[in-house]
Amino acid sequence: MVNESLQAKLATYSKPVDMLRNAPLKLFSLAYAPQHSNWRDEQAAWMSSAVLFDQSNHMNDAYFKGPDVVRLMSDTGINSFKNFGRNKSKQFMVCGYDGNLIGTSVLFGLEDDEVSLVGPSACANWVQYQAEIGGYDVEVTWDRRTADSDARRRLFRYEIEGPLAKSILEKATDGALPEVRFFGMTEFDLGGAQVRALKHTMAGAPGDDNMGLEIWGPSEDGPRVLDALLSAGEEFGLVRGGALAYYSSGIESGYLSQPVPGIYTDERMRAYREWLPGDGYEAKISIAGSFASDDIEDYYRTPWDMDYGHIMKFDHDFIGREALEATKDEPRKRKVWLRWNDEDATRVITSSLFSPRGTGAKFLDMPLGRYARVQFDQVRAQDELVGISAMCGYTVNVGGFFSLGMLDADAAVDGKEVSVVWGEENGGTAKLGVERHVQTEIRATVHTSAPIR
Predict the structure, then answer these.
(1) Can you name the residues that pair with 345 across neighbouring β-strands?
(2) Helix, strand, coil share (%) of the chain residues, nearest 5
């Protein structure tokens, strides 16, 4: 149906879970070169020297401009907006009326009356909808990711990470690199172009010497900025990283990926579902894994579940505040890392490759084990469900397979032995990336920090 809404599409399914777990969707696609050399060396670089990622293609940029910009962000976001303005940034989160997360993005304060939300579109969609129905004096424009648009991207975006990144940047800027706090923004000249940058760490070794900068500017300046970084990085062993290394870096740094948007059931969200397109992000987000429920709300998560409680501030009114305040003292999940048992991981790989069709384990890919946008695998201890395993994969810095988990508090203890149930029920769902297989269990050890060897 042309121009059908998300609400109309949902009406063709008996329940939202069927749309998200069983739709015949393709595997998660990579928006740029999977590897420049090989993903093992590219992963190692963010611990030993530095790695350079090109982020120019895979994220949506939504621009909000006007006198009501800050008020709009404050009314929708769980973040505090005291002293927010130009060159300020936030890891921005929005919730529904029931307090469940809809999406997350990075919020860039471009000017006092202009911001951009960068990332998957769920967060910016909700903010745009609120701008329209709330009468905010804000203009919204989109620069869609390369996969969704034939237009040239407005900006280039590079990320450099690692213990030698600072030395590389100082050489590239002739020592004129400004000091900037974590998650602060700055501006400087690089390769003869004026660029802006955000300091953060998505990958890289811990410690004061490590630096991560996300650098951007007009797309026409991208080639000379890239040349300047690569030239400066030659003597320091700078390595270009591809998509495989980029996405696996988030597991080490503790990024739980995007939540399942909490929008599919609340009747207060019906008008929003009618506003959303039936072929957009919220209609195509896929769920995989051994955790299987008929109730989509079992896949929803609050900011606390995803370790964002420190970001949420009750110093302002925002959508979802009442529900979140009412449950702030309730028990909640805690984020952990799960180091998978090497023998069990090897057994799964061998079983998936060499067993007769349909009798082996679910294929475990490297370095990314995910086979949908959102992964929900059961984590069990003494045959009891104690939480969920999410993003999973392999990095050379860990030296094995591991995943991020959301566990009950009494299970989120260093050294606790648990098991991850790997594979889907009844031989697997209808997603195109799911071959017929049988479920199995993988032993794992709980870590409250990244299990770097």
Answers:
(1) none
(2) 25, 30, 45
CA dist list (Å): 158 to 49, 58, 404: 17, 12, 26
Residue 211 · residue 170 · CB < 8 Å: no
Give the span between the Cα atoms of 61 and 156, in whole angstroms.
Answer: 11
Structure tokens at 268: 């207060």
What DSSP designation does 259 have? P
- The residues, ordered by sequence, that sit 6+ positions from 224 with a Cβ below 8 Å of its Cβ are 191, 192, 193
In whole angstroms, give the CA distance from residue 206 to residue 106.
Answer: 21
Task: Describe the crossing of helices 69-76 and 121-133 by its angle, rounded to 10 degrees.
Answer: 110
Which has the closest alpha carbon to 169: 212, 139, 137, 202? 212
| CB neighbour burial string for 41-68, b if at least 16 within 10 angstroms, e if fewer | bbbbbbbebbbbbbbbbbbbbbbbbeeb
Query: Contact, 195 vs 176, CB < 8 A?
Result: no
pLDDT digits (tens, 9 = 90+) for 308-340: 999 999 999 999 999 999 998 888 899 999 999
How far, in Å, are 183, 279, 334 from residue 71 at the CA level? 21, 30, 31
The predicted-structure confidence for 157-216, as pLDDT tens digits, reads as follows 999 999 999 999 999 999 888 888 888 999 999 999 999 999 987 655 555 556 789 999
